[in-house]
Write a structure and sequence with these properties.
single chain; 172 residues; mainly alpha; 10 helices
Length: 172
């Protein structure tokens, strides 16, 4: 007796749609992704946005996706901020990049927040800011800490900068 289930995109969409109609944000998000990627069904950005907007109330990934879709920086900031307020580190990091260098205080706050929430690139950036000492007080020990956090996820930039610190040494 064959107990396997074959891939069936139409059925997947059918069940995602049923759950979406019951306001299940993960299904709304999944439908948004399907329409955005266009891998299994015809790409439809408007439908994608529609589903991401439905999911955005309870799903930080949907807000992040909306931020990525919009070319209008104000809309992107709006949706990244919503996702950031839902503790989504990717959105926090994107906000850090958007605000750099025009609003360093906001930029650094978002990078540090994303770093504390485990974002790998934010860990590297946080370490770099502490290592460089231009916009944050220089703190090599904490820089090493954040570089090591990023390094454990195979971030080559963090590994390189750890090499720079250890080849030169550092004394307070």
């Amino acid at each position: 007796e064959d107990k396997s289930i074959k891939k069936d995109i139409k059925k997947a969409i059918q069940f995602y749609s049923l759950a979406s109609n019951q306001n299940y944000s993960f299904s709304q998000y999944n439908l948004g992704v399907l329409y955005y990627e266009g891998k299994y069904i015809k790409r439809n950005i408007n439908k994608s946005i529609e589903y991401f907007l439905l999911a955005s109330k309870n799903n930080p990934k949907a807000n992040y996706a909306l931020g990525m879709i919009y070319y209008d920086i104000n809309k992107a900031i709006h949706y990244y901020t919503l996702a950031s307020n839902q503790n989504y580190s990717e959105a926090q990091y994107q906000l850090g990049l958007i605000y750099y260098p025009n609003n360093l205080k906001k930029s650094i706050n978002y990078i540090m927040l994303a770093s504390m929430n485990g974002n790998i690139m934010a860990n590297f950036s946080h370490g770099f800011l502490l290592h460089e000492g231009k916009n944050l007080k220089k703190d090599i020990l904490w820089a090493v800490h954040y570089y090591k956090e990023a390094s454990t996820f195979n971030n080559q930039y963090a590994k390189n900068n750890l090499g720079v610190i250890y080849i030169n040494g550092y004394e307070d």
